[in-house]
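quick one before i forget lol
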Amino acid sequence: MNNKNKKRDELNTERTGLMSSKYYKQLLPFFIKILWLSRIPFLKTNGFWIGMLQLSMLKTLPKFQETLRGLKNKLKDDNLSHSEKDSLEEQILIYYEWIRVYQTIVDGLVWRVLKFDRPILRLLSENTAPGHIHPTYADILKKFISSTDIILINDLSRYLRIADITRITKDSKILLYELKKDGRTIHDVSDVLKNMKNHGAKGVSSQQHRHWTAQMSIINRKISIPIIEGDRVKDEHRADIIDSNITIFNHLKEVNKLIKLTTKSGYEQMELEEGYYVEIMAFDTILSDTKNFEKSPLIKRMKDLRTKQPTWLNEQNARNIDIESFDSLPPEGLQFPRNLTPQSVLPFSTRDCVRLMMGILKIRVTLNVDILIKRLKESGWNVTEVEHLAKPKKERTLSGEFLPEHPSEDFLILTRLADGGKYNVVLPLTLILIAMSSYYQIKFIIDASEATEKAGSEKTGTNQFAINFTQEQTILK
């Protein structure tokens, strides 16, 4: 087991331990109410309503964060007994979880306001995690809530990590503003441009580079991340943002039915299509009989069902990709998998979404790589596997880049002859993660690859694309 999976499993074990904590689950009704308010159909993109919700959150979230700081300071006391230390560590984990749930609710609000535009959302999330909001700063931020335009307070969300305020005007323009901590000075992209003219590229901070890159990418619908060397832009990472309105075939209804069944039975599983397997656990149901847990008929049923899993799932040489809903739940302040769909926008009941966010429900999705390749070949693609998958390129720390270079996400190379030409498409791991965390069918992956092929045939000068799937606005909530 690699270190990443080991840490994930350790955290998930701690998190599972909270499922029997009444103290942890006491805020379930509170989070259900907040998520429900953020998803009222006729108000969920209303600027006034969004402003009012954020005003409420600016009162509550800083209090959670202040309490967490206090608990962490208490833990530094060397005179604590073993039981006192254990109690404090549990309380700290609980507050981390509560803060994360709160921020995930705001993530959903952000996704809806920005129309589920994944390329832009991904770009805006490319920075270090936001710090805690101090009460005095929260009071400053409240002054910028508008009754006309939609104003998003970036520090409330995990996704908005560039600038401090995101403003969406009535004509749908997205503008980013940097705010000095005293609240008296506001900078937008014009200030960054002035600084560039006066001092050159070297005189612009990495924070200002991020601001400039994000704002210009939003305006031009073309991601262009500069690589700075000295006073010059040496090169750029470029990708065209392509809108695709392909029909998104999905398993959302089937998964929703399985959730309802799991709430009663504690555990359900199903192969939704060949090579696509889902299992769901409801800890609130499983742990309802704590006195006879080991002998519980629910546990016996779960063990019996697992003996009926599809053969490909447990074959010795099986090549499977699996993700689970817990993968979306790293504590507040840490990096999170941005390509996974936030659970606050899934079209399940408000209660079930919050149960997912709190870890009370756990969903694991497993996709068989060989069956995916077979489906791609049946669709007319020649498939070549990328051997260097997950091997990082040489790390660079040049100013202007958002983060040190990541491992390549290239997963499969697809080629085929059509209309007298040869078409090449890179199927990135990102696309598979989008499909699995959104419960989209394998056909979505195939159709998205063909949408990339079509985009490539219509564009010249670049083969880098970031696709915005416009139909997600009608599927996600």
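fyi The two ends are 36 Å apart (CA to CA).
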